[in-house]
Design a protein that fits this description.
The complex is a heterodimer of chains A (about 325) and B (about 375). Chain A is α/β, with parallel strands linked by helices. Helix content of chain A is about 40%, strand content about 20%. Chain A has two domains: about 1-185, Rossmann fold, CATH 3.40.50; about 195-325, Rossmann fold (3-Layer(aba) Sandwich). Chain A contains twelve helices and 14 strands. In chain A, the strands form three sheets. Chain A has a seven-stranded mixed β-sheet, sandwiched between helices. In chain A, strands 9-11-10-13-14 form a five-stranded mixed β-sheet, sandwiched between helices. A two-stranded antiparallel ribbon of chain A has the order 1-8. Helix content of chain B is about 40%, strand content about 10%. In chain B, the strands form two sheets. Chain B has a six-stranded parallel β-sheet with strand order 2-1-3-4-8-7, with helices on both faces. A two-stranded antiparallel sheet of chain B has the order 5-6. Chain B is globular. The two termini of chain B are about 40 Å apart. The chains are: A alpha/beta (about 325), B alpha/beta (about 375). Chains A and B meet through helix 3, helix 4 and helix 5 of A and strand 2, helix 6, helix 7 and helix 12 of B.
């Protein structure tokens, strides 16, 4: 067992898979000579050379497309977006080429590619660098989407993503890159589509992923002091979505709060609400609540930004609403 | 081996930028305008001698097959047996057939939604094509792709794509893979002149030039992007000049003569294969039908169309065959074979079963469905 930072765990996954399989390469802005905008790929250029750690011009649509074409003929690209916010200009490539080429070709061509990078907000990076992009991508059949919260999951899911024969989107977080966590020495892949119970509880299920799992755990710790036992389900994968783990937890706690970055209109939280009400309707003692980013563009002002993002106190308030209503 | 882009960061090549008269060979083709282009100017050995009458007969047969298959597709569309969009290649056959004749079988082709002719030229059977248009299980994409999305893995036909310009970076990626693996293959990427204003074109071409990828970008300039003439969609008349800004070799010519297309594209293919350098080739052509079956083409005059029909590449090839001593009985026999093949394809498509719902999930993901 080693204690690694999130970025180190991601790097280890990429390095191990690249050592094993020379079809795997890393491409993106500043991934090579600069050592990665967030140092995720630090040292990889020296290790693998410029053939396999490839700096690109600022052309997300272009190099996303290059990765897709290379994947169709048998390579296994890892395409880094400096932030998922910049993937908006590559959305056409991901939606219309990566996710559809297998279907359009009647199953003749696959697209075994990984798109990865930090997603959602950071700290005061403003409106255009703070969007939670996973909600758009998770709706698309043909894609898989993961959003790990801990270094071990980051490593195991990244390895699974690289080995998967479908396009997999790995949603990281700028504010998680320095977070440390235990990573087992013998960790191999963590299968896509498996949630985990990050904290056991009996009174309410808080569903979260990525950075919001940490917010949910903070909220659960605060709630414990007030005598409320919260179970935290960390989704890890958004597509495929492990509805069984969520539903099993809700059937036990009878209450559900979903926490994520991103706006309240639609999205992953709405999807979970739909599944829980369908699959655990008879077990629910309260409406399912969502704690999301407020329904506005992200403000630069630090206080307003923190107000817009989901915080532990908002999660606590939502839990209190569902628990008090359940008891009433 | 793919060299580091940083190590390749040479000063910009001198761009001569001379405009080229229509139908004239771009002056830049002989002058050096691209990095390494001097090395690529050696005589290009063609895979087949262009004077070979049997070879021309083969190319004419392909063009005639494309035309007959598309005429039958238009009929099927009018009868309601083919749905959605149907973009015909009629009039442009010499481009796809001539260009693909310059390839090896293991080379790759990527194209737009006007893909019937390209697919047949790359080796797709008329049966698989027609069945796909009919939405049948026996179609190349099991009836899931349709007219705009023709794929044939066996023949390295990597698809027709429906978002203008979106396939151009993808094609650069296919060429990137060839360079990464040093497999000696070349990629041809076809698109219309309507694609050269969108980001996908510029990013794909830019990366191919930067990384020196073995690819030939073929702009099929049929003068209209749907209903908008080139004069109202581009600040230049010469599309090939787009290559100058990327330091890329270029060529520009009319597509009347299928052998000429083969020869000229052969030079660009050799530049890609032997020197790993991309080329932008503008081939001027004309579609005799509307943009799609629903387009009556009112934006052009009947006189303009008739003028262009005088340059029909099929008529030209047929006349040349006769001049070369390929007698009328042999031409008639060849055409009769194509007719039989076309009718057989229609029959095959009509009699084939439709795909069932069982086809949907396995073609969405490789492995278990992910929801």
């Amino acid at each position: 067992m080693r204690n690694l930072r999130f970025r180190e765990a991601l790097r280890e996954a990429m390095v191990e898979e690249m050592e094993k399989d020379d079809r795997v390469f890393l491409m993106g802005e500043e991934v090579g000579y600069y050592q990665g905008a967030y140092k995720v790929s630090e040292g990889m250029l020296e290790k693998f050379g410029a053939k396999r750690v490839i700096d690109t011009p600022i052309a997300e649509g272009g190099f996303a497309g290059v990765g897709i074409g290379a994947a169709m003929v048998g390579l296994r690209p890892i395409i880094e977006f400096m932030t998922w916010n910049f993937s908006a200009v590559a959305f056409d490539q991901i939606l219309n080429n990566a996710s559809k080429v297998r279907q359009m070709s009647g199953g003749q061509f696959n697209c075994p590619i990984v798109f990865r990078g930090p997603n959602g907000s950071a700290r005061q990076v403003g409106s255009q660098h703070s969007t939670a992009m996973e909600h758009f991508y998770s709706t698309i059949p043909g894609l898989k989407v993961v959003a790990p919260a801990f270094p071990a999951d980051a490593k195991g899911l990244m390895k699974a993503a690289i080995r998967d024969d479908n396009p997999v989107l790995v949603m990281e977080s700028e504010t998680l890159y320095s977070v440390k966590g235990d990573v087992p020495d013998d960790l191999d892949v963590i299968p896509l589509g498996q949630a985990q119970v990050a904290r056991q509880g009996t009174d309410v299920t808080i569903v979260a992923y990525s950075r919001m799992t940490h917010i949910a755990l903070d909220a659960a710790a605060a709630l414990e002091k007030e005598g409320v036992s919260a179970e935290v389900v960390d989704l890890r994968s958004l597509r495929p979505l492990d509805e069984d783990t969520v539903v099993q937890s809700v059937r036990k706690t009878h209450r559900c709060v979903v926490v994520h970055e991103g706006w309240p209109y639609g999205g992953v939280g709405a999807e979970i609400s739909d599944r829980v009400q369908r699959l655990a309707f008879d077990w629910l003692d309260a409406p399912i609540l969502r704690v999301t980013t407020l329904d506005v563009g992200m403000p630069y002002n630090a206080k307003l930004e923190q107000m817009c993002l989901p915080q532990a106190d908002r999660v606590v308030a939502a839990v209190k609403r569902v628990t008090s209503r359940g008891r009433a | 081996m793919l060299p580091s882009p940083m190590q390749e960061n040479k000063p910009s090549p001198q761009a001569t930028g001379e405009a080229t008269a229509p139908g004239q060979r771009a002056s830049s083709r002989a002058d050096s305008i691209g990095p390494g282009s001097s090395a690529g100017r050696e005589a290009t050995p063609l895979t087949r001698p262009s004077g070979d009458v049997e070879h021309l007969a083969h190319l004419y047969r392909q063009m005639f097959l494309i035309r007959r298959v598309e005429e039958e597709a238009a009929r099927g569309y009018a009868q309601g047996k083919i749905g959605g969009f149907l973009h015909l290649y009629i009039g442009q056959e010499a481009v796809g057939v001539g260009a693909i004749a310059a390839l090896r079988d293991d080379d790759y082709v990527v194209t737009t939604y006007r893909d019937h002719g390209i697919a047949i030229a790359k080796g797709m059977s008329p049966n698989a094509l027609m069945a796909e248009l009919y939405g049948k299980k026996t179609g190349c994409s099991q009836g899931l792709g349709g007219s705009m999305h023709l794929f044939d893995r066996e023949h390295n036909m990597l698809g027709g794509y429906g978002i203008v310009g979106g396939h151009i970076p993808l094609a650069a990626g296919v060429a990137f893979a060839s360079k990464y693996r040093a497999d000696g293959r070349v990629t041809l990427c076809f698109f219309g002149e309507g694609a050269v204003s969108i980001a996908g074109f510029h990013e794909g071409v830019s990366l191919a030039a930067l990384w020196k990828l073995p690819i030939v970008f073929i702009c099929e300039n049929n003068e209209y992007s749907m209903g908008t003439p080139l004069s109202r969609s581009m600040s230049l008349e010469d599309v090939s000049m787009k290559a100058l800004g990327y330091g890329m070799d270029r060529d520009r010519f009319f597509a009347d003569d299928v052998l000429d297309v083969e020869k000229r594209i052969g030079e660009a293919v050799a530049r890609a294969r032997d020197h790993s350098l991309p080329t932008l080739v503008e081939i001027r052509t004309y579609r005799f039908r509307g943009h799609s079956m629903s387009d009556p083409a009112k934006y052009r005059t009947p006189a303009e169309l008739e003028e262009h029909k005088k340059r029909d590449p099929l008529t030209k090839a047929r006349e040349k065959l006769a001049e070369m001593g390929y007698g009328e009985p042999r031409i008639a026999q060849l055409e009769a074979e194509v007719e039989a093949e076309t009718q057989a394809a229609v029959k095959f498509a009509e009699e084939s079963p439709e795909p069932g719902p069982d086809v949907l999930e396995p073609t969405t993901y490789d492995g278990p469905f992910a929801a």
